[in-house]
Structure formats: structure tokens, C-alpha cells
Design brief:
Number of domains: 1
Radius of gyration: 18 Å
Number of helices: 9
CATH superfamily: Response regulator
Helix content: 40-55%
Shape: globular
Largest sheet: 7 strands, mixed
Strand content: 15-25%
CATH topology: Rossmann fold
Number of strands: 9
CATH class: Alpha Beta
Strand order of the largest sheet: 4-3-5-6-7-8-9
């Protein structure tokens, strides 16, 4: 299996000893969302308030919120947390961003959101809002910046586990793996359209810069 937060979702007893008949890969959704807030704060240091958009139907939402609230406290920024579980609620969240003059938006890692990349890109462009995404595909499609797990590498790890299980290993005895490869992607064309200068510190760490 692959899961954004297998422990938080109650799929395994622990990462070290999952128990039952499940093991696989944790995509570290809560931890990486907090890291994205740090990157967004570095990218838009003048933003006193950062919005975190989450899906209330995601089992990991409460843990994500807790992790990001702590990251916001450390960075000294205010955090606003709108929720969206429909396309209309995504539109409404962006309208509220504009009305309240929010500095930047962090999109939570959620399959409902990832399937609506075009909607996010269009809204971010229309309202000129800096947005950080969990998926490389969003930056490649015109989003400003993304940071997240290298999914092909994670699936290769899963394939190794599948091979071990087919050879007789018990899932309960195989620790849930965590990804070791992450991607930071910056779209300079989008940054220029927003009139945003990407800090050299972020460019130096970027795995890919889209021009």
C-alpha cells in the first residue's frame, strides 16, 4: 500500500511494526505540509498570513493542521485554514483569499485537490496569488512552486517490498518505509508573471527550475 499518513489513518499500529497484514510506504503528508509552509514563508517573507487549504473529508486533515500550526508558530506567521471538499468550495476559498488580502496559499496534499490542478492553476493566475503545491505536475502545468515526494521513486520502493512479500516475507514484519527522495520544483515563468523574485536560497535547492 501507499498512504499519505498510514499511522494517522489507523492503517498500521506503528511504522516500525505495522502488525496485521499491511505494510508499504508512508508519503509523509503531515510532515511535508509543514515543510511547505516554511518554504512559502521563505518565498513570500512579507506575507503575515498564510492560508492552508485542506479537505475536511481527508482522514489526515487534523494531523496536518496540527503540524502546520506548529510550523507557523515557529515562523511567526498567522495561519488561516479554509476547507474545501467540492469544486465550488475551492472557488469560494480563492474569493476569500482575495477579499482578505491573504499573502500566500498552501494547498494540502489530497487526491481530490490533485485531480483539479487546472482549476488551481487558473484561479492562482487570475487572482495573482503565490501558491505552493505538493505535486510536481502542478508546477509543470504553470503553478508557482511544488515540494513533495518523488512518486516514481516511492513506487519503486513499493515494488521492492512486493517482491519480498512474494518471496515469503510477512507484511507485519516489514516496517512501513518512508520516502528518501523529494522534489522542489520552481516555475520561473509563473514567478515573473506574479512579479515575484525567487530567493537564491530556494533556487539553489531546487531540483528543477522551469523557465
Amino acid at each position: 500500500m501507499s498512504s499519505a499518513d498510514p499511522l494517522g489513518e489507523g492503517l498500521v499500529a506503528s511504522l516500525a511494526r505495522p502488525g496485521g497484514n499491511l505494510t508499504g510506504i508512508s508519503l509523509m503528508n503531515p510532515e511535508l505540509t509543514a515543510k511547505r509552509l516554511e518554504l512559502l514563508s521563505e518565498l513570500v517573507p512579507e506575507a503575515s498570513t498564510i492560508w492552508l487549504l485542506v479537505n475536511p473529508n481527508n482522514a489526515s486533515t487534523e494531523r496536518i493542521i496540527s503540524e502546520v500550526q506548529e510550523a507557523a508558530r515557529v515562523k511567526g506567521v498567522r495561519l488561516s485554514i479554509p476547507k474545501a471538499g467540492t469544486e465550488g468550495e475551492i472557488d469560494a476559498a480563492f474569493d476569500a483569499l482575495v477579499q482578505r488580502q491573504a499573502g500566500a496559499l498552501l494547498v494540502g496534499n489530497d487526491s481530490f485537490f490533485s485531480d483539479r490542478g487546472d482549476q488551481f492553476a487558473a484561479l492562482a493566475s487570475r487572482h495573482a496569488i503565490p501558491v505552493i503545491y505538493p505535486w510536481r505536475a502542478a508546477a509543470a502545468a504553470g503553478g508557482l512552486i511544488s515540494y513533495g515526494t518523488n512518486i516514481p521513486a516511492a513506487y519503486r520502493q513499493a515494488g521492492i517490498y512486493a517482491g519480498r512479500i512474494l518471496k515469503g516475507a510477512k507484511p507485519a514484519d516489514l516496517p512501513v518505509m518512508q520516502p528518501t527522495t523529494f522534489e522542489l520544483v520552481v516555475n520561473l515563468k509563473t514567478a515573473n508573471a506574479l512579479g515575484l523574485a525567487i530567493p537564491p536560497s530556494i533556487l539553489a535547492r531546487a531540483d528543477e527550475v522551469i523557465e
